[in-house]
Structures are given as C-alpha cells and as structure tokens.
Amino acid sequence: IFYYCQRHRARTAKDRLQSRLSNAAKKALTKIPLVNVHENPPTEESCVICLDIIKTGDTIRKLVCGHTFHHHCVDPWLLNHRHCPLCNLDILAAYRVAVPSTINRRRHSNVHNINDNPSVFSLATTSASRVNEQSTPANLPTISATIKDDSSDVRIHGEQNPMFRLDENSL
Question: Most Cβ neighbours (<10 Å): which of 81, 144, 146, 159?
Fold first, then answer.
C-alpha cells in the first residue's frame, strides 16, 4: 500500500507540473507575435518543421531568437517542447513567463527562498542554476597567443612521433 501511495503522489506531482508548464507555454504563445507575410522574402526561407517554403500570405511566428516558422507548425511544437526547434531557446525564460512553484507549504518553511540570493535564479523549466559571477565576459581572463611561421620547425609526420613509423619487418 505504501508503494502504491508513493507512486500515486509522484504521478500526481508530475501531472501537476506538466499542467503548469503547459499553461505557461500557452501564456508564452500569446506573447509571441503573429506576422503575415505581405511580400516575397528576399531569401527563400522555409519552415524547418514542415519543410515548406514561407510564401506571401502565410502567417508566421517570429521568436525572440529570430527564427520564423508557420504558426500552425510551431504552436503545437512549443506547447509540447517549450523551446525553439533550431537553437533550443527556452521560450518560457525568453518571454519571462513564470511557472508557479512546486514546493508545498510544509516543506517551504525549511527551504530558503531562491529570490533572497541574487546569484541564484530559477528557470521557467523549474531547474535551478547557480550563476557564476566570474563567467561574465568582462571578468574572463584574456588569452593571447602568437603563431610563428618558422620553416625550420617543419617536420614530417613520422619524425614528430617515431611510433607512427611502420617497421616493415614486423608485418
């Protein structure tokens, strides 16, 4: 009976999370603009989901990342996957759609709020990551290298590593 209850709780929690994520994806879809193509695009761009060419008169969605798709192709994709099919951009995070917390009230008193620590953030897919302050481009160390074109350093491949030479007698 205990095992059954535990499985039921896990399944129910998973279903609730999927429901929350699905509702958040629907909310994000309302924020993604629909664009009608009025003139022929300068390049023949195609929808990577249906592989059809985007033509004049088509209704497309243009994501923040700049990728465009037919709205009837990308809407079901985004509802199920919640990321751009090409670059894997998380649409919930890109459009700042919050997913309600999955922590219940009883456990909440023992858990620190992640908003109290500015170096910790929660993505819309409920995974928490720590932001390393040294990973910003301004704080990264600069690496410089020089390449010398010295013809005296040119070696034949077999001379660099004698193990690459074949001993014809050993065959």
Answer: 81
